[in-house]
């Protein structure tokens, strides 16, 4: 398996623009997680899905952030409108129930909002 | 809510020297504990995990960690560090079975002197 795939790897955009980050989890995994990593706050869980259903989105910072998982092999994290303080590395991770919480991380998307 | 403390932000060791990275957690019961490593520009990779049983767990790349309930600690060790071990290390905790929310420490950056 290719592991968790994220695209793009780098994104530079201007304030106010819409940003869409994409994630393909490992085939067969039933949990998908979105994290944000910043120097100030470290790694924060934004939202996670189980069998394509959002379970907990309490980590989503505000309404400008939204996440979807239309099928088992694809998820998006959207920021609209983007702000400079959204600049961070966004990670997607997936796991399988039977693996006792072991999460497999993608390489991340480095987002810069100017 | 549980929390994870990694008291050392940055550690520098000489190649071949031993290493111990500290991790303390706050949680009433026995949590599920993890150590992840993040190389520059990469996602997180699981080094090892503890759920129950033997309190000394072995991981990949020659790392081990010991769970000490009395000290609420899960320190990571390696007897002889290699230059390729230079990376950032994250301790993480899940609040036991049925929870899928990883809480990460702020990380410890390891530098290795040749």
How would you characterize this protein structure?
- The complex is a heterodimer of chains A (114) and B (114).
- In chain A, 0% of the residues lie in helices and 54% in strands.
- With 114 residues, chain A is an all-beta fold.
- In chain A, the strands form two sheets. In chain A, strands 2, 4, 5, 6, 9, 10 and 11 form a seven-stranded mixed sheet that branches.
- The termini of chain A are far apart.
- By secondary structure, chain B is mainly beta.
- Helices cover 0% and strands 51% of the residues of chain B.
- Chain B is built from no helices and twelve strands.
- Chain B has strands at 3-5, 10-14, 19-21, 24-26, 32-38, 44-50, 56-58, 64-68, 73-78, 87-94, 103-104, 108-113.
- In chain B, strands 2, 5, 6, 10, 11 and 12 form a six-stranded mixed sheet that branches. A four-stranded antiparallel sheet of chain B has the order 3-9-8-7, with no helix packed on it. A two-stranded antiparallel sheet of chain B has the order 1-4.
- The A-B interface holds A 4, 31, 33, 42-43, 45, 48, 50, 55-56, 91, 93, 95, 100-108 and B 32, 34, 36, 41-46, 49, 51, 90, 94, 99-107.
